[in-house]
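F.,

This is the one I mentioned.
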């Protein structure tokens, strides 16, 4: 190798290494900065965005929320490259497993990849709770398996039973090359929105129990599944951190508003988000520390807390009759989650 070529390689390494390998670099700590080159795609570039996430098509009048990029404090994120992603995962299967926040991220990734190769043939198939997006030229399948609790819900004699110690659907996850799990959103639902009638913990069946305790027990069941089933040489495992909602403006220090409705800017305070750690995030991190096989936490909670402006609000599925401060507009915040996923995968 000539001296000039060697120097070029060294320069590349020096420039590229700090992107995610700063001596104290934590890609999940940073701030949102305005970037005129964003978003990474437009809603019109992605014809399969579901209605509840397509805020621009649903009439959202502002656009500033699309122009923010996540900037880690001590390093830079590599810009998402859909072509690079598809090359790396050629012939492989990717699966998101979880609730509608997992769906949000799955839709984001399919849009990012379609924007990178807009002429590439694809198929989109939905059968029951499984959606599969396939880039045929690359042999890449990106799947979403709807499973809001990760553990099983079965029909019993007296109603639906949430079984905290059972993961029958885990058969579907075996052998997948990249798994991204998520659960939390449905754990606090009650009344008509609660999709189960009883909860079973080992041999004890109850009408209800402490939801945070139930959440932790389900996570530990999932952790045992990972320990017993996942081959780290074949499968990479990620867990999407808890996605926060913005239903109470007191959480971000504003007593004048009630929800995310009408919010058009992130929380930009140097002190960060006024609220403390999300209780579900604390439980999740505790469980993940006990997992003996490699699981990467996609730690999106704190950075997403700052994006009170990123929800569909009145421009989601329910329109002006409802206010969705839980899910996220696309393009939007889940694109950053996938940028972080991409950074974690390539480094």
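My design for it:
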């Amino acid at each position: 190798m000539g001296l000039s070529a060697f120097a070029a390689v060294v320069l590349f390494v020096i420039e590229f290494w700090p992107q995610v390998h700063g001596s104290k670099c934590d890609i999940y700590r940073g701030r949102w900065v305005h970037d005129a080159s964003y978003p990474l795609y437009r809603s019109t570039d992605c014809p399969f965005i579901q209605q509840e996430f397509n805020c621009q098509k649903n009439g959202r009048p502002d656009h500033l929320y699309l122009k923010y990029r996540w900037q880690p404090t001590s390093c830079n994120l590599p810009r998402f490259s859909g072509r690079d992603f598809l090359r790396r995962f050629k012939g492989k299967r990717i699966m998101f497993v979880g609730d509608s926040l997992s769906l949000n991220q799955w839709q984001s990734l399919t849009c990012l990849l379609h924007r990178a190769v807009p002429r590439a043939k694809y198929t989109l198939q939905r059968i029951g709770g499984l959606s599969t997006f396939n880039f045929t030229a690359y042999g890449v399948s990106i799947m979403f398996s709807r499973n809001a609790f990760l553990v099983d819900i079965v029909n019993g004699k007296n109603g639906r039973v949430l079984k905290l110690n059972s993961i029958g659907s885990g058969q579907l996850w075996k052998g997948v090359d990249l798994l991204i799990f998520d659960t939390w959103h449905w754990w606090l639902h009650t009344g008509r929105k609660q999709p189960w009638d009883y909860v079973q913990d080992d041999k004890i069946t109850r009408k209800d129990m402490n939801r945070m305790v139930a959440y932790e027990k389900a996570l530990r069941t999932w952790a045992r599944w990972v320990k017993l089933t996942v081959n780290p040489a074949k499968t990479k495992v990620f867990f999407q951190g808890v996605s926060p909602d913005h239903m109470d403006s007191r959480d971000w220090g504003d007593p004048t508003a009630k929800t995310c409705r009408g919010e058009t800017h992130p929380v930009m305070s140097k002190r960060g988000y006024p609220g403390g750690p999300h209780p579900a995030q604390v439980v999740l991190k505790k469980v993940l520390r006990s997992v003996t096989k490699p699981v990467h936490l996609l730690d999106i909670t704190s950075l997403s807390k700052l994006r009170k402006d990123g929800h569909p609000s009145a421009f989601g599925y329910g329109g002006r009759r409802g206010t969705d401060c839980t899910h996220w507009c696309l393009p939007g915040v889940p694109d950053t989650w996938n940028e972080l996923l991409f950074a974690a995968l390539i480094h």
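Confidence is low (pLDDT under 50) at residues 1-18.

Talk soon.
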